[in-house]
Design a protein that fits this description.
The protein is an all-alpha fold and 203 residues long. The protein contains six helices and no strands.
Length: 203
């Protein structure tokens, strides 16, 4: 009979799954935004789902004496995962607020970067729940590399924006979206750093 998975690990896996689903949805829809209201609404639902997982973990922490890893580590990891989905949802909401229906090549590149970050986050979380701690280092390094690529992309796209776009309002809108997308990759890196510190304390 298969052993039932610990509620904390099960919920962390569900958070990682939701992050990947949300980034894939974002990446799939960004090149051709037909209905900004639906896009923002769907992304909000992913974010709300992740909030429900956070609530589950907080509730369980309040009534569980023995946890599979340190309580502080569970809380730090939960918070950092939630921040990723908050970031991607905040980006999606800006498309509707600013009525941006024609995302450029840079936004699509950021979206691709976030999908790849999410794939590595899911891989790392599942390694954690399987107690394969040392193997977590590989996806954590990948996430750090992807965040560095996003830093480089931000510099390139802001330079291009100021060089090629004359409408000041358009500059303001695009620049904020670029920066929020890059900040979301920072949140992905926070997940990787949190996982690395868990590995150091438990291996």
């Amino acid at each position: 009979m298969k052993k039932k998975k610990n509620i904390f690990f099960k919920t962390l896996e569900e958070m990682a799954d939701t992050i990947l689903e949300a980034t894939e949805y974002f990446h799939r829809n960004v090149p051709d935004l037909k209905d900004l209201k639906v896009f923002a609404r769907d992304m909000k639902e992913y974010e709300s789902q992740c909030d429900r997982y956070v609530h589950t973990i907080l509730t369980e922490l309040n009534k569980t004496f023995i946890t599979p890893i340190e309580r502080e580590d569970i809380m730090a990891l939960t918070t950092s995962l939630d921040d990723v989905l908050d970031g991607i949802e905040a980006c999606a909401s800006r498309f509707e607020m600013y009525n941006i229906q024609e995302p450029d090549e840079y936004i699509i590149l950021f979206a691709d970067n976030l999908v790849r970050c999410a794939q590595q986050i899911k891989k790392a979380i599942y390694l954690l729940t399987e107690k394969k701690l040392l193997a977590i280092r590989e996806p954590a390094i990948h996430i750090n590399e992807l965040e560095n690529q996003a830093d480089d992309l931000l510099r390139v796209c802001v330079m291009s924006l100021f060089a090629n776009v004359k409408d000041p309002l358009e500059v303001i809108k695009r620049k904020e979206i670029y920066e929020r997308l890059e900040q979301t990759t920072d949140c992905c890196e926070d997940v990787a750093n949190t996982l690395e510190s868990i590995v150091m304390r438990n291996s």
